[in-house]
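Hi everyone, sorry if this is the wrong subforum. Our group has a chain we'd like a structural model of before ordering constructs, and none of us has done structure prediction before. Sequence below.
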Amino acid sequence: MGTWECGDEEEPRASARAVRDRRQAEIEYLLGVVRQQQQRWEDALAAYQRAAEIDDEEITYVVAVAQTWLQLGRPQAGLRWLQTRAARFKWTNAYQAALAECHEQLEDWPAAASAWQRIAGTGDAEAGLRQRLATALYRSGRYADAIPVLASLINVAAGLRTGRLVNAEDLENSSGLPRLMLAECYLAERRPAEAQEHIQWVIQREPENVQALRLLARNLGMAGKHAQALRVTRRALGLAPNDVRTLELAAALAWRTGARESAASTAERLLKLDAQNPVAHHVLDQIANSE
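Answer:
Right subforum, don't worry. Here is the predicted structure as tokens:
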């Protein structure tokens, strides 16, 4: 009888301790929020870590620690921290988002894309998340995978889809970048007509958009219209004379059109900006070998 009574007393004590621990964790978390607002990041980190250690079942505290490591410019530390909590939380969207953000800061785009895809696969993919997924896929060179994600963003902005998006107007106003990313993906996949549609959309609204002009020149070059492409590239250079990617295109096109002096001078300009630039060296080698 005495043993049974002791057990009866232990259960409410354990429950009371759990409640106290949760309250203490909440206090530590709120302290971290205050320190974060004061931009006292090291103090915020310590408070969030204490909260996560006291209550190891709350994902909010785990994510707060990872995001504070990112604020401190230490994404590797954020990754190591998340790995210690993977067994408990890796199935949650909050964990995968924090993981993706660490990989983004490290510019490990394939890993970031994989993490964003895990969230998108749950069906909980609002426009901002899909934009980040598209960016990670694009920067990973996974152009074929990026195309449907970018296209869905643009279609929603154009009112062709509704879904769960609540800020279609804002996305429409800023959809130039997704369109240019999509155009570049189409060019990489050898789909020039589809690329042209989006390039023209941007140029009509932003005639001095250097990236759009460069993509237009690439598309013209792929069609064999090298002289026309070179004119467009020079227009872009007039707007951004030190843009490395535009200079690379200009040097290559000048060489293709037989403008040797222009190709050489453009390549030399490139080398002043980037002494190891492979395009500049290739063009100058081609010129030297042709003499």
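For your construct planning: Residues 18-106 form a domain with the Serine Threonine Protein Phosphatase 5, Tetratricopeptide repeat fold (CATH 1.25.40.10). Residues 2-37 form the longest helix (36 residues).
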